[in-house]
């Protein structure tokens, strides 16, 4: 492989890199995809897929218990839940955990190469074994993100869980401490509590999910407590020390002492730019790679370096990263063919949705699903409409159904800027909200989108009625 030339070289073989490579290959280019761990990346083996596999059985059991006449057991079978999770991540596959992804890459005309790739010059990537790959048209960096470790005294005396440990553990810890009330923190706290762990969730504020509307955090907080999660609000960890025989002693903010068998650090992630070789280009090795709307790294002359996904710092979500990868892959292919492309908003070569319509689901019970803005813009005439999810469809869906919905409206243009749903199984309503935001559907036209009866989607009609239509 030494000295081999490709049209495009992609560093990072997770979902984002795979999509970027595929799109470039679809443009007729010879593409190399470099991955130093498993092809398929974080999402496939340690994040989105296994976490949702852990959450789904508990959500299903809870939903069944809310329906009179359905006879169910009182607990999950952890062994079966963990085995089903492993079936999704390929653990124990005799052909290799990621052989399916390798076969897929070759099937779409992409050459998968194992190794750690670093940029070593203009349009040049050097692998950990010394091989040098040259890219005729460009390099796309899709290295994702890495966990952010907080500076807690004594943390080095134990081996804390990261998100990978939380999603791949082969046993249920008796006592689990979780630091952080973001998405990973709340999802893993509920998943392991429902599998039998005594879970302590430690958060700094009054409620989890502080970036979302308060009602979303309050509903998730109630759901966690209903599952036995002990939530320490307004708290943190001031010091950690190892316990003889295993485990950790935590001194919480305020003086409370807590002993756990495992401590999950769910304190955020940062772009993985430290080992890409950016210093060769005079770029910082910390922080995101800033890109233009087509995915091209703005600070590099010659327009040959692109990036997509978490490494850009735009929206640390797999689906949004894959969206950016489609844009970057298409853009590098079109420019390589000599085409004059448009990066105007909402064009095929512009990742416009990163700024206006980022959808996200928190797969707790209750779920939270949101897209676009969750608050009115400062100094604007935007209007926020909040209602309970209380329609015939929700009453039939579950006894005691509790949920809320928010719609943020640009009153000057009469279009929706954002929607937030919180309640059991609201995730499947999110794409309708995303279409409304991306399409800037006028409210007086949306009025004619008649929701089927009796479904939870009737909440759309109630939102429009509350607005005054």
From TrEMBL:
InterPro entries per UniProt: Class-I_Pyr_Nuc-Dis_Oxidored, FAD/NAD-bd_sf, FAD/NAD-binding_dom, FAD/NAD-linked_Rdtase_dimer_sf, Pyr_nuc-diS_OxRdtase, Pyr_nucl-diS_OxRdtase_dimer
Class of enzymatic activity (EC top level): oxidoreductase
Span of domain FAD/NAD(P)-binding: 6-318
Needed co-factor(s): FAD
Pfam families tied to this protein: Pyr_redox_2, Pyr_redox_dim
Domain of life of the source: Bacteria
Record-level GO BP terms: 2-oxoglutarate metabolic process
E.C. code: 1.-.-.-
Binding site residues for FAD: 52, 117, 143-145, 310
Residue sites binding NAD(+) per the record: 180-187, 268
Key words of the record: FAD, Flavoprotein, NAD, Nucleotide-binding, Oxidoreductase
Entry's cofactor comment: Binds 1 FAD per subunit.
Gene3D superfamilies: 3.30.390.30, FAD/NAD(P)-binding domain
Domain Pyridine nucleotide-disulphide oxidoreductase dimerisation: 358-460
Disulfide bonds: 43-48
GO MF annotation, one: dihydrolipoyl dehydrogenase (NADH) activity
Similarity comment text for this entry: Belongs to the class-I pyridine nucleotide-disulfide oxidoreductase family.
Protein name, as recorded: NAD(P)/FAD-dependent oxidoreductase
Organism: Amycolatopsis carbonis
